[in-house]
Prior knowledge:
Layout: E1 7-12, H1 17-22, E2 28-37, H2 40-48, E3 61-63, E4 68-71, E5 77-81, H3 91-101, E6 105-108, H4 116-123, E7 126-129, H5 135-138, E8 142-149, H6 151-154, E9 160-174, H7 181-196
Helix pairs in contact: 2-3, 3-4
Amino acid sequence: xxxxxxxxxxxxxxxxxxxxxxxxxxxxxxxxxxxxxxxxxxxxxxxxxxxxxxxxxxxxxxxxxxxxxxxxxxxxxxxxxxxxxxxxxxxxxxxxxxxxxxxxxxxxxxxxxxxxxxxxxxxxxxxxxxxxxxxxxxxxxxxxxxxxxxxxxxxxxxxxxxxxxxxxxxxxxxxxxxxxxxxxxxxxxxxxxxxxx
Length: 197
């Protein structure tokens, strides 16, 4: 975090663009509330739909995650691992989700390219990073798995889990002001590599 970075407590869903636009790259975000896991299959399906499914409100948070789930006989769902998957391949679809469905927050690792950073600027969305390799520790911030959607269609790894989290620690790495920590690191790394050759 930089000297001017802040810790922000954010609730999800977050339809208030003022809150989303207040976040800047480097800010620590403690996220509480409802988030939805979503990988390739969900992103593709959403972009084929005319309107968002009823369970996905404006300002929703999508977590790029394919959790390891345990389904109990009484219907309860437990997650044994819930680490982030690489977000890059979801960038094209996420851009459409921001524009059409007003999705406010995306969580994952590695950032997203294509038109996604520009969509964040135009519509006030933010990308939040959670460290890779922490699949089990991520479960420590989960208070409840409330529902599971598209299980029969997508299977357990690609299904959409509705999760309640409490104070999940994240870092804002793409903001709505043109800040993009992933791109900055890429450019700095390339510059150092060019110098060392």
